[in-house]
Amino acid sequence: MEAHRSAEHWGRYVSVFLLFSSALNTVYAVTHYSIPEELKEGSVVANLAADLGLDVMELSRRKMRLDVIANKKYLDVNKETGELYIVEKIDREYLCISKTTCFLKLDATIENPVRMFNIELEILDINDNAPHFRRDTMHLDIAESTPAGERFSLNNAVDPDIGMNSIKTYYLSESEHFNIEIQTGRDGSKFTDLILKKALDREEESVHNLILTAVDGGVPSRTGTANIIVRVLDANDNAPKFDKDSYNIDIMENSPIGRLVVKLNATDLDEGSNAEIVYSYSLYTSEKTQETFSLNPNTGEITVKDMINYEDFRIYDMEVIATDKGTHFLSGHCKLTILVTDMNDNHPELSIKSFQSPVKEVIAVDTVIAVVSVSDKDSGENGKVDIHIADQLPFALRESSDNYYELVVSQPLDREKVPEYEITFTVTDRGSPPLSDNETMTLELLDVNDNVPQFPQSFYTIPVMENNAPGALLSSLTAFDPDLHENQYLVYFIIEKEIVNTSMSMLFSINPENGNLYALKTFDYEIEKEFLFHIEARDSGVPPLNSNVTVHIIIVDQNDNPPVIVSPWRAHGSVVEEKIPRSTDKGSLVSKVIAIDTDSVQNSRITYQFLQVTDATLFSLDQYNGEIRTMRMFSYRDPRHQRLVVIAKDNGDPALSATVTIKLSTVETAVKAYSDMTEVPLEYDIFSDLNLYLVIGLGSVSFLLLITILVTCVLKCQKPMPSKAAPPSRNSVISERNSTIADSTLVSNDAYWYSLFLAETRKGKLVVRQPVPKAASRYIVSSLPRSTGLTETSDSAASTLQYPK
């Protein structure tokens, strides 16, 4: 509270300077405070939050901070109250050496969004330093011949304070012979000359002890004293005199060491040692000036001794004394003012005050990314700085206040095209030649889920060989997503589509992680030929994005079905037995082998060959239609029984085949078994040495017995059963056989069904002995000549093709 009252005692004021920019339509403010130096730690300067119009509750969240100055943190902001308070005592004399005004320029920065406030803190001087002399005792030797009015330079007092608190006047103790004359320097400092107001008489008083007091203007005032011891010397009555009382000299900064600045010349009208002159700096010349320039005591040449920097000192004031070597030396004075001319020797400086990285790739245009400041220690055109960045970057610089610039987004960003930017700020002054500097910062972009997964193709055709193993890999359907991390992780799905009450997930599966497509079952080309469905790829972003691709699965046929011999029919593993008259002519049709293959194209093309034949000269086989014909007429030397083994082979690779064995028996009479489409036929052997009537009698008895059995079965099963007929006459046998063979040719190799069938024509009906697909029965009907007039009927036991009544 005491420190706070002290601050109130000195007074505080806040002033806000507004800069209007019509081009940017923005307002920039500088907040000004004034406080006295040496305030205690914890003293409150002002409520910064209130002065800046900020919400105190938001200070911590928005990370308000003050820049550190000269590696010392003199002030800070209480983020709970918004008060600006003293952290460390401020010594104005330490902070602003030899300056009449002292300002601390602070930058208060807040984030979310980024804002920067310029604060100017004026440090007011208090009278906390007393004047003091460089030398506590000053010795002066004055010849007694010195005339009244002669002046002698004294060591001036210094006071680090400024303004009213600096030295205001000097007082000299009472003296009959001396008084002082106070003078004011260019910088406002006070110094004094000792004036001889009455001629000295060494014999009366050889030593004069005086006290010089320096008084500052503070309230209360402070003082400092020095002793002046004046020794009265004997006469050397002519003092050296310079050609000019004052000199103004211009010199370029960074002039090389040793360079001649000026050569002073003083003369003494005395002779001998009293005319020999020695040059020296007066006590008025500052130590900095004496460290920068060297004075030759014998020649009066002033040369450059140390580096001259315009930015440190622009004007050097000095006073040179020319003293003779008389026993009682005399001296002359001249003043020099050296003006330093600026040259462009300082590179412009760049400071990044705030920088946001990384940022999202969807950051809005005109968003502030960074705040930078520029400066140059040079003056004039040499101190004016221009800043720029590369033109091809999607960013722009916008001046926010004096020497402050904002880096804003000027174009939309896309991480997939450019994941990060190297932004180089280049600052160049307007000197000749211009100097420049640069600083590079890296802006990283954060990924946003803004890209849909993409498949290399929009349509995939995948051939799959039938009889594949369940779980076999069909293909790998991989999509690409240029996003990163979870936005890049893809999951694959099969879009459900039902086909005949079967969903695609029951037929195929896809690995959700890598897109590998598998078959869940073994496919049969003869049942399923193709599938068409969609696969979706979905990323793991929020919200997720997806795309799909069409997949066409084509089942490729494999030669996996051997030919099936459907005519002549025989029981599994049995031999087909047929009878033909021995009087059969050459070229007569004996039998016809018909085979079907459910495979497609090449695999279903069937050729026929004899595998075994009793007499190769007796029968021929057409390799394309399977017709067996006689090559000549039978002779008595030919065996009665002929064994023919026919192989039906498809065109696959490797080829599959089926065989049928036909046993042909030659008869003298027209006796013929039922055709190969009946049930297991009865075999009749006609013996030439038996009575024909006995054969007919045995056949009749057998026929009646068979009819009795069949009728009994029909009555029990209530199903129509075919019955055996009596052996027909020779002519009817030949006619029926030829009709059966002709009809059997109507069944095509390309019939698309699996079951074997047996059929016979009985009383206007073609009875199918084994169950066959309905389409096959239609195929048989459509293949028969229209003159037959057959129609299709069916019951639980068999499919029946029947003539219309």
From TrEMBL:
Gene3D superfamilies: Cadherins. The chain crosses the membrane at residues 692-715. GO terms for cellular component: plasma membrane. GO terms for molecular function: calcium ion binding. Keywords: Calcium, Cell adhesion, Cell membrane, Glycoprotein, Membrane, Repeat, Signal, Transmembrane, Transmembrane helix. Its main location: membrane. It holds the Pfam family Cadherin. The keyword ATP-binding does not apply. Residues 27-133, 134-242, 243-350, 351-455, 456-565, 580-683 form the Cadherin domain. It is found in: Cell membrane. GO terms for biological process: anatomical structure morphogenesis; homophilic cell adhesion via plasma membrane adhesion molecules. Potential calcium-dependent cell-adhesion protein. May be involved in the establishment and maintenance of specific neuronal connections in the brain. This is Protocadherin alpha-C2-like. It comes from Oncorhynchus kisutch. The gene is LOC109864687.
